[in-house]
Amino acid sequence: MLTIHADSTGHALAVEGARVVAAGDVRQLADAYPRARVRRWPGILTPGFVNLHGTELLEETYHPDPREAEELGTEPLTGDALAALAPDDVRWGGSARRGVQRMLAHGTVAVACEALRRPAVVDAVRRTGLDLVSRAGRPGGVPSLDPLACGLPPEVPSPREPGSAARFAVFDVSDASELAERGASTCVATVIGGRLLYRRR
Hints:
Helices cover 28% and strands 26% of the residues.
């Protein structure tokens, strides 16, 4: 089904399947595709982010389940706390799924990783559809679920144009300056491969 995603500035993308078929003003796209479903989002539509710390956040961090809050708290575990927990494969898989969902909630459409070593983590990432980007070595900065808070310039995928993969995010801000000031927690929607993988309730 063809869907037009439009932000509050009037910019829109027409998406069919996993691809962008057109970009432009929402009124023009609605006229060109009169049978398309139109989703209107608050804020601005952007290409989304590449989180540069995929390895650190998915294989060197444990994201507690809310049901573990009394035992482990709610913050991600690293270092000595992670070593003391010594998660098994089941826990690593659950942690990776939660970590990916929290990345999606910050407008992340791809993660940069060295080769992932834990099969449970690899499986969790593949099932979500999050894109993987290879990297060489550690990127520096501070690993963060918010790509704008890691201390490095944010990376975004290639521009969205007809025929490109439909991966983008929407942030409830007025412009890029406000997004930089308030951070990626303002995300209201993340789309990868044409699928709406995160929507803020």
